[in-house]
Design a protein that fits this description.
Layout (H helix, E strand, L loop, with lengths): L1 E5 L2 E6 L6 H8 L5 E3 H9 L8 H17 L4 E4 L5 H13 L3 E7 L3 H9 L8 H14 L3 H4 L3 E5 L1 H4 L3 E5 L4 E2 L6 E4 L6 H10 L17 E4 L10 H14 L2 E3 L3 H10 L10 H9 L3 H12 L4 E4 L4 E4 L13 H9 L2 E5 L5 E3 L11 E4 L9 E2 L2 E3 L2
Parallel strand pairs: 1-7, 2-4, 2-5, 3-4, 5-6, 8-12, 9-10, 10-11, 13-16, 16-18
Antiparallel strand pairs: 12-13, 14-15, 17-18
Length: about 375
Amino acid sequence: MKIEIPELALVVLIGASGSGKSSFARQHFKPTEVISSDFCRGLVCDDETSLEATNDAFDLVHYIASKRLALGKLTVIDATNVQQGARDGLLALARKFYVQPVAIVINTPEEVCHARNQMRSDRQFGVHVVRNHCRQLRGSLRHLEKEGFRFVHVLRPEQLEDLEIRRVKLWNDKKEETGPFDIIGDVHGCATELEELLDKLGYSREEGEAFVHPEGRKAVFVGDICDRGPRVVDSYKIVMAMEAAGTALCVPGNHDDKLKKYLDGKKVKLAHGLQNTVDELNAQPQEWVKSLHNWLDARISHYVLDGGGLVVAHAGLKENMQGRAAGKVRAFCLYGETTGETDEWGLPERLDWAREYRGKSAVVYGHTPVPRAVWLNNTLNID
């Protein structure tokens, strides 16, 4: 049996005392990746079984987990975690550091847990303890996804013997892509100008084919392909064909995201050029519009490229969000940092995040029109 977990995640082991969580952790994770509540009890009071040290021990668990997650390190919590209150604090940590929370439940029968504890000199407590753990676990299983766990794996003892855990890269991780890159700002339906730009950059295409660069260069679009310009459909067709041919990448812009919501059937205001886009789409075959809808739905918030040295996002991205996967990360990529207020034109008031940026990765973005592109603190706005 195989299960997959993200390379960067907060993995929460859940199971009664004696279920085999610690053995599971030792088998599948590095010792430095696992934070054991029992070990932390020992650190704070020299006794791994001391219930009096529980609060201090879990303060330490959360502290160490915070440090690891801030550095982008996979972190595993080895504790019973059968009570929602214990899980809530860990889910809050995952949200704080924009990582995906994973629940791995070791669902061992109550009698097996009790028998194992009886064989351990440091686990000589009453049968009622394990019984309560198992009862709390049963009551939790159907709620784990609703609580906020992105992935939930429930494992029985017989499934553990041949289990393989495969770590998968986040979709935004394209560090292996080293370019050279041609990063292109907001297109906004200006397909004619896009064609001229690609031609100037050395790309060419045969009739019905995608633009390709003879030296293998790759275009990276910062999003907002639609609205305003006269050739929205053609703009999308150019970008979609290039991505399918492997000669381009494209992150979503806020205009692309709004179009996706419209195609989802949600009520959106047809403003800021969206009406032009809708009018063009109404003249297209429904099969193509569906393919565009699927393409928009598959957009990744941002990309980390060139060994981590380059980040491309529509509206930019702070260092602590780069390479992370969370709703707040996606919102920042689409809209940038805002005050929550709107200006006199009804647009969000934006904060200049780039002035405070001190990250090692260069960030190239668009979204906010500027007279000319100027590097600022290792960031570049090319809109």
